[in-house]
Amino acid sequence: MGRHDDLWSLFYMLVEFAVGQLPWRKIKDKEQVGQIKERYDHRMLLKHMPSEFNIFLDHVQALDYYTKPDYQLLMSVFENSMKERIITENEPFDWEKGGSDATLSTSASTQPQHNTRPTAAIVGKTHIVALTAKKPETSFGS
């Protein structure tokens, strides 16, 4: 498995986030899933995705095991999609935004999540940040 496989996994994950499921979701046999993926028209997966993701798909389809992905191009897909929708990198997730719907709002007593940074979930833009956390102290048997 190479870098292109990781990008295929990212592509499928983003589609699943946006659409809710992938066409082969209920198939248990890995070989059968692989055959479906090889024959499937991946453009159909982009029906509910931002149009910029056609660039992502085109690039990933052109890669093989030895080809280095153009990560700058792929990042530009996320950045352009965010710009098109006027989404900032630090915009809160939908469930972090205030609203009249009681199921979406959080109460004042809810503790904030630590070591997390909101990102634009609608387009799946993520940053990997090294975090240091103090190990919680525990006492056993005392």
Describe this entry's structure for a reader.
InterPro entries: CK1_Ser-Thr_kinase, Kinase-like_dom_sf. One of its GO terms (molecular function) is kinase activity. Residues 1-20 form the signal peptide. The protein has a domain at 3-84: Transferase(Phosphotransferase) domain 1 (Transferase(Phosphotransferase), domain 1), CATH 1.10.510.10. The chain has 142 residues and is mainly α. It starts with a helix and ends in a 58-residue tail after the last helix. The chain has helices spanning 3-19, 30-39, 53-62, 71-84.
* C-alpha termini separation: 49 Å
Q: Mind telling me the CATH class of the domain at 3-84?
A: Mainly Alpha
Number of H- or I-type helical stretches = 4
Major beta-sheet overview: none
Q: Strand percentage, roughly?
A: under 5%
**Reported CATH architecture of the domain at 3-84:** Orthogonal Bundle
Give the tally of β-strands: 0
SSE order in H/E notation? Answer: HHHH
Task: Spell out the blueprint of helices and strands.
Elements (H helix, E strand, L loop, with lengths): L2 H17 L10 H10 L13 H10 L8 H14 L58
Helix pairs in contact: 3-4
Notable features of this structure?
Tau-tubulin kinase 1; 142 residues; Transferase(Phosphotransferase), domain 1; transferase; kinase activity; signal; CK1_Ser-Thr_kinase; mainly alpha; 0% strand
Quick description:
With 142 residues, the protein is mainly alpha-helical. Helix content is 36%, strand content 0%.
